[in-house]
Amino acid sequence: MQGWVIPPLENSDFVACMEFVLDVYKQAYNPMYPVICMDESPKQLIKDTRVAIPMSPGCDAKIDYEYERCGVANIFMVNEPLTGKRYVDVTERKTKKDWAELIRKIADEYYPNAEKIRLVMDNLNTHKPSSLYEAFTPQEAKRIWDRFEFIYTPKHGSWLNMAEIEIHVLMGQCLKRRIGDMETMKQQVDAWQKDRNNKDAKINWQFTNDDARIKLKKLYPTISY
What we know:
Nucleotidyltransferase, domain 5, alpha/beta
């Protein structure tokens, strides 16, 4: 049975936040004000304990059932749905400093010429401007923060973050096999990123506020006149 995170009924906070995110998604592409989605996910590092037998004519590859756990890596996914670009960082941790370093990279390396970067993400406690001030000097923290408009998906609304779609694609196409060390994982992820970016794989988001008011009607407060 698949688990779902279901928001409470008649949740005005949820629908207000959701409708704002959906308004952002329907805006036309503007390279000076790009809409970027960011998400993160853990990935277990797993090493084979015995050498696998490779595929041969008429025979499938054979992988021993035993394996060794080698810790957990963190995957940061940054994607721009309207251009079909994504950037993936593999880190050992997902601390406030790790997130702050990612935000600086988005500002200075990925989108150095943008006037304002509109960043959609969930409201995890590390995803706050305060994390920048814990990682950098006040001047540097403020410089980075001024480059962004942070847009948070509602609690129980992670499905509104298009970076989550990209993480699922990454896991299915690249990381569903055993990878035992960080360096190999980084190499594999980098190759996947380059290949997918070269394919210009965009996300055609169709869900709008009009759709939400019909399909998610129970989430909207009932107004008595």
